[in-house]
Design goal:
This protein has about 140 residues and is mainly α. The radius of gyration is 30 Å and the shape is elongated. The protein is built from five helices and two strands. The chain has a single domain, classed as Large-conductance mechanosensitive channel, MscL, domain 1 (Non-ribosomal Peptide Synthetase Peptidyl Carrier Protein, Chain A, Orthogonal Bundle), CATH 1.10.1200.120. Helix 2 packs across helix 4. It has a two-stranded antiparallel sheet with strand order 1-2.
Length: about 140
């Protein structure tokens, strides 16, 4: 039973619970970023390039494509044809860049808020007059 007690103490610690909450929120946040990329950013990028560009359908078939299979990413993937899916990689890379940028901005904001909450450091007390006088004497003796 000591193992169960030790595990309970570990699982109840604040850090483990904070991590669990972070993972759950991170998963939901990842879905938001996926939607941002797929529903907002990618259509804007494809309109800039003059048409409907679906990056997920940018690929190179590396194997023989059966004649009765449409030449689309989903159909070839289901048929088991090896695919070099560089378009999907582009989408995921844009996803990562946006996610990293948003997290960077969030950390900046949190740091700024924390800095506002901290009391300002008091100025250093003035140097006593006798110490200033001794420093002046020391400096004049060096000359």
């Amino acid at each position: 039973m000591p193992v169960l007690k030790e595990f309970r103490e570990f699982a109840v610690k604040g850090n483990v619970i904070d991590l669990a909450v972070g993972v759950i929120i991170g998963g939901a946040f990842g879905k938001i970023v996926d939607s941002l990329v797929n529903d907002i950013v990618m259509p804007l990028i494809s309109s800039l390039f003059g048409g409907h560009i679906d990056f997920t359908n940018l690929f190179i078939a590396l194997g023989k494509v059966p004649e009765n299979i449409p030449y689309t990413f989903d159909a070839l993937k289901k048929a088991g044809v090896p695919i070099f899916a560089y378009g999907n990689f582009i989408t995921i890379a844009i996803n990562f860049i946006l996610l990293a940028f948003v997290i960077f901005q969030m950390v900046k904001i949190v740091n700024r808020v924390r800095a506002m909450d901290e009391p300002p450091t008091p100025p250093a007390p003035p140097t006593p007059e006798d110490v200033v006088l001794l420093r002046e004497i020391r400096d004049s003796l060096k000359k």
